[in-house]
Amino acid sequence: MENLLQRITIDTEICHGKPTVRGLRYPVEMILELLGAGMSHSEILEDSEDLENDDILAVLQYASKLSQVKSIYKVDAA
């Protein structure tokens, strides 16, 4: 599964440095938004012919890693 994370790339010249799939112009956040809106893997793949199923799995694994925090602190708004 660790190899999946290699599909997520960050390049300041692509999508303003946001994490993307394999250096393509598919930001991780966009794929997550599509999944969150109810699109299935197959629907996303149909709409984006250069994406692969492992790309979507990589996006999910990347999001999972980002959510693994040791502690959360409340910050009061000023």
TrEMBL record:
Protein name as it appears in the record: Asr2172 protein
UniProt xrefs under InterPro entries: DUF433 (IPR007367), Homeodomain-like_sf (IPR009057), WH-like_DNA-bd_sf (IPR036388)
Gene3D superfamilies named among the record's database cross-references: Winged helix-like DNA-binding domain superfamily/Winged helix DNA-binding domain
Highest taxon of the lineage: Bacteria
